[in-house]
């Protein structure tokens, strides 16, 4: 009798569990993995990238090279919220926003200001604060349909996993939403937003060109509006200001026939300033370690270090000048002034928003220490 009662109770419990009205099976949800924002003719245009996780999940039976379909929804409205909501009417399934990993903004949005985008997206509870943020000049549909090598899903592209590339080739640091918002709201703090492009020339599948995503530069802001774009080449000297830099290659010398290739790691970047008679002068000091990647000419280590120091020094000065042309502080000099002398910073910025001139950068001292020559020894003198 007791066993019969337990069976009856168990049946009632199972019926009760199956009757949860708000329960959703995971296969009946459409998972948004990326959001694209554009602004055209007074209308916000929102793109959503949707993936079927059954196709992109890594399993033992996963077929490498199998083409994985990507669904893209497009909505329009006078506000970002309205443009997103307009997608619901044809989605057929409930959209789930908890797996959004990247947001890509066109230049139209960046020039208009990212504050509206942050306000709309951050109010939605399912979207996290630490999503990656990018700008682009490309068509958002083209960005969202790019697959990775071997036709893997977009979740294996640089848009979602930039740290994988940054470990091997450090240049422009990826940034997430909460850090970008902090930089935009902090006086003196330069915000650098990576720009996504599509490279159609490097990779082929057999004889067919295969386009791949690439970070080709960065956008800079005045308050919350984009004011300038600089290419990756323009920012070659700015990479040494990043303590997160893992490894980055230089040729020695930079121009002409290379004599060696060095991989630079672990930069220690410091800025000292001198304030006199209302003028500020900055001295940049950089210490960085190096590994010898390739030696094309028999050069003593000391001479090799000195030539490498000149290459890095020239890159820093060049990037500084490129930034001046577009009123961008790529070396983070103004931030040092704000941190160390806030009263002077506020006084200087009352009359003009950008205070740096060519003479502001007084010295650039670079010290490179070659710590590893690989399997082969290098000549010390």
Report on this model:
With 381 residues, the protein is an alpha/beta fold. The protein folds into two domains: 205 residues, no CATH class; 147 residues, Nutrient germinant receptor protein C, domain 3 (GMP Synthetase, Chain A, domain 3), CATH 3.30.300. Helices cover 28% and strands 32% of the residues. Strand 12 and strand 13 form a beta hairpin. The radius of gyration is 26 Å and the shape is globular. The N and C termini lie far apart (96 Å). About 4% of the residues have low confidence.
In short:
The chain has helices at residues 2-17, 53-56, 80-88, 107-112, 115-122, 140-144, 162-168, 177-185, 301-325, 333-340, 342-349, and strands spanning 29-40, 43-51, 71-77, 94-96, 102-106, 132-136, 192-199, 204-205, 208-209, 212-222, 225-231, 248-252, 260-276, 279-295, 361-372. By secondary structure, the protein is an alpha/beta fold.
Write the layout of secondary structure elements.
Blueprint: H1 2-17, E1 29-40, E2 43-51, H2 53-56, E3 71-77, H3 80-88, E4 94-96, E5 102-106, H4 107-112, H5 115-122, E6 132-136, H6 140-144, H7 162-168, H8 177-185, E7 192-199, E8 204-205, E9 208-209, E10 212-222, E11 225-231, E12 248-252, E13 260-276, E14 279-295, H9 301-325, H10 333-340, H11 342-349, E15 361-372
Parallel strand pairs: 1-4, 1-5, 5-6, 6-7, 14-15
Antiparallel strand pairs: 1-2, 2-3, 7-10, 8-9, 10-11, 12-13, 13-14
Helix pairs in contact: 10-11
């Amino acid at each position: 009798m007791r066993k019969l009662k337990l069976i009856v109770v168990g049946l009632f419990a199972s019926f009760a569990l199956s009757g949860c009205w708000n329960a959703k099976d995971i296969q009946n949800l459409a998972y948004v993995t990326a959001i694209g924002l554009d602004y055209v003719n007074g209308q916000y245009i929102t793109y959503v990238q949707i993936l079927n996780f059954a196709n992109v999940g890594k399993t033992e039976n996963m077929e490498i090279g199998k083409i994985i379909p990507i669904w893209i929804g497009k909505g329009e409205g006078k506000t970002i919220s309205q443009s997103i909501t307009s997608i619901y009417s044809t989605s057929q399934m409930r959209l789930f926003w908890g797996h959004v990993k990247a947001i890509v903004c066109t230049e139209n949005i960046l020039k208009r200001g990212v504050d509206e985008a942050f306000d709309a997206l951050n109010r939605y509870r399912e979207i996290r604060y630490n999503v990656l943020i990018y700008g682009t000049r490309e068509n958002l549909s083209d960005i969202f349909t790019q697959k990775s090598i071997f036709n893997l899903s977009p979740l294996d592209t640089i848009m979602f996993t930039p740290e994988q590339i940054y470990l091997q080739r450090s240049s422009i640091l990826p940034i997430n939403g909460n850090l970008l918002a902090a930089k935009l709201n902090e006086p003196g703090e330069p915000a650098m937003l990576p720009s996504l492009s599509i490279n159609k020339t490097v990779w082929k599948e057999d004889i067919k060109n295969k386009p791949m995503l690439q970070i080709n530069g960065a956008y800079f802001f005045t308050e919350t509006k984009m004011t300038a774009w600089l290419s990756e080449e323009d920012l070659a000297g700015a990479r040494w200001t990043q303590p997160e830099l893992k490894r980055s290659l230089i040729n020695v010398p930079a121009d002409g026939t290379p004599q060696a290739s060095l991989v630079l790691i672990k930069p220690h970047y410091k800025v000292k300033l001198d304030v006199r008679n209302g003028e500020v002068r900055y001295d940049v000091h950089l210490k960085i370690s190096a590994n010898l990647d390739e030696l094309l000419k028999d050069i003593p280590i000391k001479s090799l270090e000195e030539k490498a120091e000149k290459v890095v020094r020239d890159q820093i000065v060049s990037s500084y000048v490129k930034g001046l042309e577009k009123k961008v502080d790529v070396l983070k000099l103004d931030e040092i002034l704000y941190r160390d002398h806030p009263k002077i910073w506020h006084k200087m910025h009352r009359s003009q928003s950008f205070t740096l001139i060519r003479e502001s950068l007084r010295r650039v001292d670079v010290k490179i220490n070659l710590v590893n020559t690989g399997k082969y020894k290098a000549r010390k003198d």
